[in-house]
Design goal:
With about 525 residues, the protein is an alpha/beta fold. The protein has helices spanning about 25-45, 70-75, 80-95, 100-120, 125-145, 155-165, 175-190, 265-285, 305-315, 330-335, 390-410, 420-435, 440-450, 455-460, 465-480, 505-525, and strands at about 55, 60-65, 145-150, 200-205, 215, 220, 235-245, 290-295, 320-325, 340, 350-360, 365-375, 380-385, 415, 485-490, 495, 505. Helix 8 (about 265-285) links the parallel strand 7 (about 235-245) and strand 8 (about 290-295). Keywords: ATP-binding, Chaperone, Cytoplasm, Nucleotide-binding.
């Protein structure tokens, strides 16, 4: 430890943010305690042996998850400082997508370390600055220990996706979900791309079957089912797909008005007119060669009537209605069909082409698949199945995390070991670095280094191991030069974690460190809270 000048009797720190006894003000303490309480709440769900949380929402819906961001999002957090940690996990979710629990646990640990430093009389600004310097240094050490990865190396991408899935409820299905996540993302990237837009990956959720039935669709999968009540087709080869935003039902005037008909012949005329109008629409659609029709959902009037469905079925056109407005872009991108808002603009060049459009049924879940698209856009669909809603929702969240992990490797093409190895490695190097510093900064660096040990400690605790014995042995192994030694949770021992295929993207850990240090610095700098009317 660096020989920091001892605070002698003449070195008492007088500052408005401290009271007479050199303790932090009530507000800062209250903020830190609130934030630590949030961190403790999610701490038990860290790692492959972490516990799951059951959340009941205000509407009575039940959510079972161990995804940090989801847990905090549903928590009714009232304290403003504690809400900062909810925002922190959201930021990590956007930046990296995984490590949302770790980042909150890390912030809680750094706050505990900061509290000790403040009670020793070190100024909050000094602590905040030192922590941010230490985080920058830690990121340098992590980059130095990382291994570069090539996107063509599928095996490494699979290892990272599996590691992410192993800490989820659906961990036993990681052999099914990991390849799907890797294939989905690699389909969208080129060798030069530096990011992937996950909105180009569409996840269709269907209750029925098990998670094993989850599959990647080459083309497009639709949540809506084909309309068969007028005997329309449910399978169409050599499909020409039309995407329309107008309605196939009798027109309605803009104003609310009533027509009183007292003559039956007039009534007959109105019905004939409606029939003729619909028949004309259907014939004009058929004329373009369209044989699969997707209709946008309409709130003003029915998108289709029984009569128009009957005509379309006669003309052998497959109809799928209730396409949501926000799906239009994705469908257009996937199939090449351009949305048309008026029948006059509906021409052959607006159609999309596919080898096959068919409605399939797996274990009671119906889904429409469009395959063999002629000139596909860079999009991909995943049909996610599960036995009930709870499992299905969690399966989707886990798949999203796995997709994010693969996306992280596209953003920053480097992997590091998991299982608490990088934290201990960085902690050891930061402690050594602290010896070269002087004064208060040395204390702060030392405290930051010790705070990083919360990750391996929590991993060991959640797995039912003795945290003190495990972390001590881990430190010892690292001191002997085994920089990839980590906690093997399954066997309850310390081993080379790379041989166990436990790897994570560099971006997940670096962004967790940087974001946690920033949030802690922000909380430390607040010395008062004002309520406005």
């Amino acid at each position: 430890m660096a020989s920091a000048p001892s605070a002698g009797p003449g070195a008492s720190i007088s500052d408005s943010s401290f009271n007479d006894k050199g303790k932090p003000t009530e507000v800062r303490l209250s903020n830190m305690n609130a934030a630590k309480a949030v961190a403790d709440a999610v701490r038990t769900s860290l790692g492959p042996k972490g516990m799951d949380k059951m959340i009941q929402t205000s509407t009575g819906e039940v959510v079972i998850t161990n995804d940090g961001a989801t847990i905090l999002q549903h928590m009714a957090v009232l304290h403003p400082a504690a809400r900062m940690l909810v925002e922190l996990s959201k930021a990590q979710d956007i930046e990296a997508g995984d490590g949302t629990t770790s980042v909150v646990v890390l912030a809680g640990s750094l706050l505990s370390a900061a509290e000790k430093l403040l009670s020793q009389g070190i100024h909050p600004t000094t602590v905040a600055q030192s922590f941010q310097h230490a985080a920058t240094k830690a990121v340098e050490y992590l980059e130095e220990m990382s291994m570069p990865v090539d996107l063509a190396d599928r095996e490494n991408l699979l290892k990272a996706a599996r590691t992410s899935l192993n800490s989820k409820i659906v961990s036993q299905y990681s052999s099914t979900l990991a390849p799907i996540a890797v294939s989905a993302v690699t389909r969208l990237v080129s060798s030069t791309s530096s990011n992937v837009d996950l909105r180009d990956i569409r996840i269709v959720k269907k209750v029925g079957g098990t998670i094993d039935d989850t599959e990647l669709v080459e083309g497009l999968a639709l949540n809506q089912i084909a309309m068969t009540n007028a005997g329309g087709p449910t399978r169409m080869e050599k499909a020409k797909i039309g995407l329309i935003q107008f309605q196939l039902s009798s027109p309605k005037p803009d104003m609310d008005n009533q027509i009183v008909v007292n003559d039956y012949r007039q009534m007959d005329k109105i019905l004939k007119e409606e029939r003729q109008y619909l028949l004309n629409l259907c014939k004009r659609i058929k004329k373009t060669g369209c044989n699969v029709l997707l209709l946008q959902k309409s709130i003003l009037r029915d998108a289709v009537t029984d009569l128009s469905l009957h005509f379309l079925a006669k003309l052998k056109i497959m109809v799928i209605k209730d396409i949501e407005r926000d799906e239009i872009d994705f469908i257009s991108k996937s199939t090449g069909a351009r949305p048309v808002a008026d029948i006059d603009a509906f021409t052959e060049d607006k159609l999309g082409y596919a080898e096959l459009v068919e409605e399939t049924s797996q274990a009671g879940a119906k889904v429409v698949k469009v395959t063999g698209v002629k000139n596909p856009g860079k999009t991909v669909s995943v049909v996610c199945t599960g036995a009930n809603d709870l499992v299905l929702e969690e399966s989707e969240r886990s798949l999203h995390d796995a997709l994010c992990v693969v996306r992280c490797l596209v953003k920053k093409r480097a992997l590091i070991a998991g299982g608490g190895a990088p934290e201990i490695h960085v902690s050891r190097l930061l402690t050594e670095h602290a010896h070269t510093l002087k004064g208060k900064e040395a204390y702060c660096f030392q405290a930051f280094a010790e705070a990083l040990e919360i990750i391996p400690t929590t991993l060991a605790e959640n797995a039912g191991l003795n945290p003190i014995a495990i972390v001590t042995e881990l430190r010892n192994k690292h001191a002997l030069g085994e920089r990839n030694a980590g906690i093997n949770v399954k066997k309850g021992i310390i081993s080379n974690i790379l041989e166990e295929n436990v790897v994570q993207p560099l971006l997940v850990t670096t962004s967790a460190l940087e974001l946690a240090a920033e949030t802690v610095a922000l909380i430390l700098r607040i010395d008062d809270i004002q309520f406005t009317r």
